[in-house]
Amino acid sequence: MDIGLLLEYGWVLLILIGLEGILAADNALVIATMVKHLPEKQRKKALFYGLAGAFLFRFGSLFIISYLVHIWQVQAVGAIYLLGIAIYHILKKHVLQPKLMKAAGEDKGSGFWMTVVKVELADIAFAIDSILAAVALAVMLPETGLPTIGGLDGGHFAVILAGGIIGLVIMRFAAGFFVELLDKRPGLETAAFFIVGWVGVKLGIYAMSHPELAILSDGFAKGAPWKITFWSVLLLIGVTGWFLSKEKPKDSGEIKQVV
């Protein structure tokens, strides 16, 4: 790889680390809230099952999507899905004003195994979010010529795999930091889902440029103008989210101990 290609791959990996951090913190916080009503020993077991499920579902999603990623229908569904979850989360947070964490914690009637089932369902949703976002960021990187894995260039697969592993490491060891960061600057969560939606737009552009669909030319999806537009908007979302996030008081009383 030449230095330019390494820099481009490194930049995408940095974006993935930030995005995976926010998604992993959300995942960890949801799991912690779902299991907090259980006795301590059962809580630890449920958390263990939750982490094991997160590993299995993320790697399973990666290998399945790697074989399907070049099918334009899969790309289109992925784009719609990413846009859908972004709109859903933003509307819930700013329009419907949900009490998601409270509602999960108030479910006192859920026994151990029902709680585990709910945790695993949450893991599946977050695994799909994470891998689809990583795929959408990686597939338009220049190909490296490394051996393909599934339908992916070896370099693309490596970036997606690294992003998935980093997300799991963050969820296991650094989720507390990201949860505290989200607590201090809640606007970052909104910015993260705007980024997810924008990544969905990118995957949609990629789908419309597929030779079998050809709504847009292949040159448009891989051309410099679109790449500059995509990264400029993504950077603008991140910077705006950071500076518009107001820090909350430190005595907010939110859950700090996660996984």
From TrEMBL:
InterPro entries noted in UniProt: CHP03716_TM_YkoY, Integral_membrane_TerC
Pfam families: TerC (PF03741)
Cell compartment(s), UniProt: Membrane
UniProt keyword annotations, A-Z: Membrane, Transmembrane, Transmembrane helix
Membrane topology summary: Multi-pass membrane protein
Highest taxon listed in the record's lineage: Bacteria
Transmembrane region(s): 12-35, 47-65, 71-91, 112-137, 157-179, 191-208, 228-245
Family the UniProt entry places it in: Belongs to the TerC family.
Protein name from the UniProt record: YkoY family integral membrane protein
UniProt organism field: Sutcliffiella tianshenii
